[in-house]
Each structure stands twice: as C-alpha cells, then as structure tokens.
Amino acid sequence: MKNRNIGNILGIIGILVTIYLGVYYVPEWVKGIQHDNKKTSLFKGNVGNLAATFNLRIDYSEQTVNGNYFYPSLPNIIYRISGSIPTKTQMYLTEFTQGTQTASCTLLTSDDVCWAGRMENTDGKVFNMSFCKVSE
After folding, report:
1. β-sheet bridge partners, residue 80
2. What angle is formed at CA 77 by the lines to CA 130 and CA 117, rounded to 5 degrees?
C-alpha cells in the first residue's frame, strides 16, 4: 500500500513537471528573437526555376511553421506547408497537395530573413528552393 502511494505521488509530480516545462520552457535561441507570432508574413522566392510566393506564419515560441505557397504562373494551385524550426537556423517543411504529402523540404538561414535549401518530392524529384521575407 505504501509503495503504491509513493508511485502515485511520483506520477503526479511527473505530470506537474511536464506541464510546467511545456508551458514555461522556451529554448534559449528563441529568447533573442522578437516576432509577432500571430502574423502571417509574405515571402518571395523560387522552387526550382519557378518563382513562388509564400504566406507563412513562423511561430518561434512554438517552433512551428504553417502556411501555403503558390506559383504566380499557376495561381490556381495552392500548396499547404507545415513544419518546424528546431534551431535558430534550421527549418523543416512538409508540402501537401490536396491533403496528400507531396514533398519534404530542408532549409537553412543565417539572418532569419532569407531561407535556402532543397525540396524532395515524393516522386523522387529534387529542387533547390529559397525565399526571403518581403519588407512590411
């Protein structure tokens, strides 16, 4: 009986610590970045040889990226993208076309304004990709 009570108490303490860290822990690299986490920003760049326009909400405190992009030459096709920013200089995105995953992207930055990397489509095609934030 005594061991079971200790186990229950330790379990409750573990849950409380997890909640505390989940709510209050902010990675050190995020603390120096000042951004409006609720705002979608406009980026312009390229995927392969095609010009692309990106609408992204980068939430540094949650380390997430959500949004979409399209090619101005093909404006009726909108690609949904979501992903993560595990460090200050890395971004990982997944592209979805009509709800189906169609590509994975890995990008790097040195200034938090322009990102560059590559897109690997699920059909095996690989493209260079880059985009820069448009001044507001």
Report:
1. 68, 96
2. 15
